Amino acid sequence: MATTSDKQVVFRQAGETLEDRFRRLAAAWQEAVAYHSSTTVRNNHPAYREIIGLGIDVVPLLLRDLEDNHTHWFAALREITGANPIPEEAAGNIPKMAEAWLRWAKDNHYSW
């Protein structure tokens, strides 16, 4: 299956592990939206949507990337898990948002 956005095609590759697929999709997403400040653009990119479609199994990979790089996986985590652990006063503060998600993950027995 191929998806297109910004003249970019993303293919599913045979024999790919979940982590390989996540890394490939994340790289495509980051390259495509690197200069977009719009969360709508960022969160609706086909690669981001495909990562969400990977479901609950991708959550540890999102958490690891969130912890290591503070990558904005907040919408993906919220959509996949149904949780929203970010307190209102932390909204917009990326380090505090990441901290809230990582604390939630530990409280819910996720490991990454």
Total domains, how many?
1
Counting DSSP H or I runs of 4 or more residues, the number of helices is: 6
Strand order of the largest sheet: 1-2
Q: Give me the count of strands.
A: 2
- The percentage helix is 55-70%
Q: Quick one: overall form? A: globular
Cα separation of the termini: 29 Å
> Main beta sheet: strand number and arrangement?
2 strands, antiparallel
Low-confidence stretches: 1-10
User: How large is the radius of gyration?
Assistant: 14 Å
Q: What do these coordinates show?
A:
The chain is mainly alpha-helical and 112 residues long. The protein has one domain (2-107). The protein is built from 6 helices and 2 strands; from the N terminus they run ββαααααα. Strands 1-2 form a two-stranded antiparallel sheet. A hairpin with a 2-residue loop joins β1 and β2 (8-11). The chain is globular and about 40 Å long.
